[in-house]
Amino acid sequence: MRRLRELIILVAVTACSSSSAPQAPRAPSVADQAPESAVLNRTWIVDKHIMVEGSALSEDDAKGFHGRTVELDAKGYMSPWHGTCAEATRTLTRRPFVDVVDELEVEDADRSKLQTFGFDDDVAEFRLTCNDRPNPPPFLVFVSNGKAMTCFRGACYLLIQF
Q1: How far is 11 from 111, CA to CA, in rounded Å?
Q2: Where are the beta strands (DSSP E) in the chain?
Q3: Based on the structure, what is the number of domains in the chain?
Q4: CA distance linking residue 45 with residue 150, whole number of Å
Q5: What is the pTM of this model?
Q6: Phi-psi region at 154: left, alpha or beta (left = phi > 0; alpha = psi -120 to 50)
Q7: Is the pLDDT of residue 7 over 90?
């Protein structure tokens, strides 16, 4: 009987010591607390696109993504270009519109298309990095005035809220 009691105590102690303490939730980042984050976290639909210099896609290839969805939430994302990521971290950089379109090498006609779409002078650039797999490419989403844009292989997709 004594050995049985010792065995039970040993099993209980081993079980308690091997169970890990619950993970503390990660502290919200500046990007998580930004007002644009509330706009970012939703389901988006690819409405239209613009081509940028050096595009690897044809116009028809880019049009093939119209109507596709992009899902973003506080923890992760799903996109037709980057797949699904359950655990992503994000950073935020606020940038002037002109700097974003210059860096992307957007043609003048498409710059006005972006402004007509709803982008204004202030752009929030969210860089999402997936922690589910090794060395994923970053998923960049630009948010301005309640609209969003993401680029892949030389096409920038203009996203509307679902």
Answers
A1: 67
A2: 43-51, 69-72, 77-79, 83-85, 88-96, 122-130, 139-144, 147-152, 155-161
A3: 1
A4: 11
A5: 0.79
A6: left
A7: no
Tokens 């969003």 label which residue?
148
**Identity at 1, one-letter amino acid code:** M
Domain assignment present for 144: yes
pLDDT tens digits, 124-139: 999 999 998 888 899 9
Query: What gap in Å lies between CA 135 and CA 156, rounded to an integer?
Result: 23
- Torsion from C-alpha of 109, 144, 151, 128, nearest 10 degrees: 170
Between CA 130 and CA 88 the distance in angstroms is 4
Q: Is residue 133 a part of any domain in this protein? A: yes
Q: Is residue 107 part of a domain?
A: yes
Dihedral (CA of 141, 152, 99, 109) sign: negative
- Residue 16 pLDDT more than 60? no
**Tokens 């519109």 label which residue?**
97
> In 3-state terms, what secondary structure has residue 110?
helix
**Position 16 in a domain:** no
SS3 breakdown of the chain: % helix, strand, coil, rounded to 5?
30, 35, 35
- pLDDT tens figures, 68-98: 999 999 999 999 999 999 999 999 999 999 9
Give exposure, 138-154, as e/b (b: 16+ Cβ within 10 Å). Answer: ebbbbbbeebbbbbbeb
